Amino acid sequence: MAKLYIEHTHKTPEIDFNLSGGKLFIKGVSVPENAHEFYFPLIDWLQKHLPNFKKDNIVLDCKISYLNTSSLQFLGDIFFLLDDLQEHSPTINVEVNWYYDSYDSDMKETGMDFKDVVNIDFNLKEVVV
């Protein structure tokens, strides 16, 4: 089954998408100079591989410590792709875990905003630092 791994940089998050295990992971800072250039291959990869997903569950863990406005759009696109998958494949359950530092109200609010616009299990998980 398909896997996608991109190592983090000081401006882009680590990406570890492993559909064979139903695990997707985004971690780090997301302030790419060109968000389209960074995120479009991820979205393209998901569009190609999600229709072939045959497991029961997908879990996306988002541990993003900071992101810029242009990254928000592309993360939303990822969440909407997962939302669409669940809507059209009722046997698949999609869960997103949005981790945020206890002192970071902006990241908590960002997670709450995403939770309000998708119909997937979207869990806000506070990390005490």
Mind explaining what this structure looks like?
The chain is α/β, with parallel strands linked by helices and 129 residues long. Helices cover 37% and strands 34% of the residues. The chain has three helices and six strands; from the N terminus they run E-E-E-H-E-H-E-H-E. The chain has a six-stranded mixed β-sheet with strand order 1-2-3-4-5-6, covered by helices on one side. A hairpin with a 4-residue loop joins strand 2 and strand 3. Helix 1 packs parallel to helix 2 (69-88). The termini are far apart.
Entry summary:
This protein has 129 residues and is an alpha/beta fold.
Give the helices and strands, then pairings.
Layout: E1 3-6, E2 14-18, E3 23-30, H1 35-49, E4 57-67, H2 69-88, E5 93-101, H3 105-117, E6 121-127
Parallel strand pairs: 3-4, 4-5, 5-6
Antiparallel strand pairs: 1-2, 2-3
**Mean pLDDT across all amino acids:** 94
**Major β-sheet profile:** 6 strands, mixed
Written as H for each helix and E for each strand, in order along the chain, the element string is EEEHEHEHE
Distance between the termini: 36 Å
Helix/strand/pairing category: alpha/beta
Poorly predicted tracts of residues: none
| Global morphology | globular
Could you give the count of β-strands? 6
Specify the number of helices. Answer: 3
Residues in β-strands, percent: 25-35%
Taking all Cα atoms into account, the compactness measure Rg is: 14 Å
Strand order of the largest sheet: 1-2-3-4-5-6
Helix content: 25-40%
